[in-house]
Amino acid sequence: MPDKQYYIASCRYINPVFGPVEVRVSAAAKTIRARWAGPELRVTVPRNLPLQMYEDFLERFKDRIIAAKPARRYYEGMIIDAPLADFTLVSRPMQKRGVALSVKEIEPLRGKKVNIELSVASSMGDWSQPEPEMTINGALHSAAAYVTRKYIIPLASEMAARLACSVAGWAVKDCRTRYGSCDSRGIITLSPKLAFMPDELRDFVICHELAHLTHMNHSADFHELCNSYCGGREAQLNRALKALRLPVF
């Protein structure tokens, strides 16, 4: 009787070599893809992939995956200098493990709209370890979502009015692999990652989503409209966006 076949499923687990791993099964995936998101290895696999093939992939490309792991991302006293806000990381004794946010909007320093201090509990330990790094990253996303709602959405609304675009509503949500989306109702969702982008790339993402109000696809007509919204620089800005490295994952 042949051995029973096992298939890999979407899951999270701790791998003895790579540490935290998230596996996502995707109907659109044709091959196995692995990439680092901070200290976590994210692996996308096709449906009905045998477990043995998944394990063979990790073993075969083990050295390459380890070599690609990003260096330590956050450190004590770090200031993330973004266009509308800055984000300062400090370590402090706290009763609970985690990160507390302190927002200063009255007479902020360095010409920003807001200064946000993230106090990391000293009990979190070494920031290069997976738990502190993931916790700090999550807190930065929360702080960036605040900046996006309060400052970027009003800028986006002004752009929409200037371009005569009718937006049904705005939302903020981290979509992991996308910086924005536009649904059939005309609601545009922006990623909090926009808070860390240079002005022109942030505005390009907004222009891209505004163009989707007219064309819900990536046809030639869509690109022509998007290009007109961003002053004929769509291709240039798209290349710059793909090359951008953000302080969050």
Could you say what the CATH architecture of the largest domain is? 2-Layer Sandwich
Question: H/E element string?
Answer: EEEEHHEEEEHEEEHHH
Mean pLDDT: 95
Supply the number of structural domains.
3
Q: List the strand order in the largest sheet.
A: 1-2-4-3
Major sheet:
4 strands, mixed
| Global morphology | flat
Index terms:
11 strands; 4-stranded mixed beta sheet; alpha/beta; Zincin-like; single chain; 6 helices; 33% helix
Q: How would you describe what is shown here?
A:
It contains six helices and eleven strands. With 249 residues, the chain is α/β, with parallel strands linked by helices. It folds into three domains: 11-67, no CATH class; 79-150, no CATH class; 152-243, 2-Layer Sandwich (Zincin-like). Helix 4 (199-211) crosses helix 5. The termini are far apart.
Set down the secondary structure blueprint.
Layout: E1 11-15, E2 19-26, E3 33-37, E4 40-46, H1 51-60, H2 62-67, E5 79-81, E6 85-92, E7 99-104, E8 114-121, H3 130-162, E9 169-172, E10 180-182, E11 187-190, H4 199-211, H5 220-229, H6 234-243
Helix pairs in contact: 4-5
